Structure formats: structure tokens, C-alpha cells
Amino acid sequence: MLAELQERDATGEIARIYAEIRRLWAVPYVSSLQRHLATRPGWLEWTWAALGPAFTSGRAQTAARRAADGLVVPRLARIPREALAVWGLDAAAQDAVRAACASFARVAPVNLVLAGLLRRLLGGERPAGAPAPEAAWTPPPPLGALPPLVDAGSLPPAERAVLASLGTTVGEEPFVPGLYRMIAAWPGLLAHVATVLG
Known about the structure:
By secondary structure, this protein is mainly alpha-helical. About 55% of the residues lie in helices and about 5% in strands. β1 and β2 (about 175) form a beta hairpin.
């Protein structure tokens, strides 16, 4: 799997940046993107020094939300309660899955903006014009606790293969988005998601 510096292992400046990201993204975790950057000495610190002001001001999150609000995605068929029960999703588990989905709907557009800005910066582009005046911005209320990420290596081979089918490669390393690693706690739901999204 793609190398990541877990939040529990972060110290010093990286821990401070992780805390800022959790606050500004308004979710209780730091995404794989930032956790991977943190594995390379100085990369996350440099990225945050260059791009952090766009996020502390809220301009990046506002732009991300505006872009995501215009997206139209196909609706998936509703999953019957009986199927959820067969897959072991009681009311608490269903709430946990809803929370995980809500967090990723909030985080993904903001991470895409961060990745896009970083790509442009690495490509030599620099902002043009005067900086926009700072406006007061408050992050949305944070989301609650989420299911833990399942360690793909701990899964039986068939479940690991289903999880891997929802992933991709980054720099020749396998990468599975955290949302799928969260719902991997319910193998029936994971298999359904892999089938429907496939």
C-alpha cells in the first residue's frame, strides 16, 4: 500500500499541520494525500507553507464546494434493510457508513483543489495579481467519529481482492481510498459497492 505517516505517529510540525487540516477540512482525520506527503522529509511542510493560506482563509474550500455543488452523479438503487441486516449493518453501523460517506463528500473536493494547486505549483505556475483581502471564514461544524480504516493485509484473500478492485496505483504503489477501507469492515456491503461501482 501507499506509504503513509499515520496521525498517531505524527509529531512536531507535521502533527501541527495535521491538526490544522482536520480543523479546516472539518473532519476527524487527515487524508491519505497529506499522510503520504508526510512520509517524505519536508514535503508536507513545504506544501502547507505554500498553499496553507488558501485553506486557512477558506477560499480553497469555498471554490471546492462551488465546483462540487454543480456535479450531477447517477443515483444508485436503494439497498433494502433486509440486505443491510444480512450484511451485518445494524442501525449504528448504518450511521457509521453514512458518516463515512458524508466525510468523503466533504473532503474529496477540497483534496482535489489541494492536489491541483500543488500540481500547478510544481509545474512552475505562480499566482498572478494582488492577494485577495482576508475575509473572516469559519469552517463548518466538524463531523463526528468515523469507522476505523481496515488494514487490507488483515483481510482474507477474497475480501482483499474486492477491496483492491476499488483502488488504483500511485507511483506504482497500490492505493485504495479510505472510504472503501472504512466500509471493508462489512464485507457484504463492500462486495456490493465494488459490483455497483464497477
